[in-house]
Specification:
The chain has three helices and two strands. Helix 1 packs antiparallel against helix 2 (78-99). It has one domain (30-149). It has helices at residues 56-73, 78-99, 134-149; strands at 30-41, 44-55. It has a two-stranded antiparallel sheet with strand order 1-2. It binds zinc ion (ZN).
Length: 150
C-alpha cells in the first residue's frame, strides 16, 4: 500500500438533526412533544412552552421539569390556578408518549447542542415539587379556619 502525502481527505461535514432525531442531542428515535408550565403572578400568569422533537431522555427531562414547575408556581393567580389541571394532564400525556420511546441511540455526523441526552432526573412523583399543591390548600384552609374562628 502506498501512502501519498498529497492525498486529499474529504472534509467531514456535520449536518443538523433530521426527522426522528433529537434536536438537542441528535440521538434517535425521537418524536415531537410539547410541554408547558404555568406560573401565577398575582393577577397575571405566564405560560412557558417547550415544543421540539426530542429523544426519550431529553423529553422526560423537559416534561418532568415543566410539570414540577407548574406544581410549585402554578397556584398563585386565578388564571394559572384554572390552567394547572389542564397543563398537568397534557404534560402527563406527553411524558407517557416519551416514556414509550426506545432508549436513545447516538448518530454520527450530527451537529447537536448536547453531546449526550439530558439526564431525565427523578419522576415527578419522587420530587419535592409534588408537595407544591399543599401550599395553596394550606393557605385556603388557614383562611377558612380564620373566618370560622371569628
Ligand atoms: Zn436527546
Amino acid at each position: 500500500m502506498v501512502y501519498s502525502s498529497t492525498a486529499v481527505r474529504p472534509a467531514r461535514y456535520l449536518r443538523l438533526p433530521g426527522p426522528g432525531e433529537c434536536e438537542l442531542c441528535g440521538c434517535s428515535p425521537a418524536l415531537g412533544v410539547t410541554f408547558r408550565s404555568v406560573r401565577g403572578l398575582a393577577v397575571m400568569h405566564r405560560i412557558v412552552t417547550v415544543r421540539a422533537t426530542l429523544c426519550r431522555y431529553c423529553a422526560l427531562a423537559h416534561g418532568r421539569e415543566r410539570t414540577a414547575r407548574t406544581l410549585v408556581a402554578g397556584w398563585w393567580s386565578i388564571g394559572a390556578f384554572i390552567a394547572v389541571p389542564l397543563l398537568l394532564v397534557l404534560n402527563a400525556r406527553g411524558l407517557r408518549r416519551a416514556a414509550g420511546l426506545a432508549d436513545p441511540r447516538a448518530n454520527d455526523g450530527i451537529a447537536s447542542y448536547l453531546e449526550w441526552p439530558l439526564d431525565p432526573g427523578r419522576p415527578v412523583m419522587w420530587r419535592a415539587a409534588i408537595l407544591g399543591p399543599l401550599v395553596p390548600l394550606f393557605a385556603v384552609g388557614l383562611l377558612v379556619a380564620l373566618a370560622l374562628g371569628r
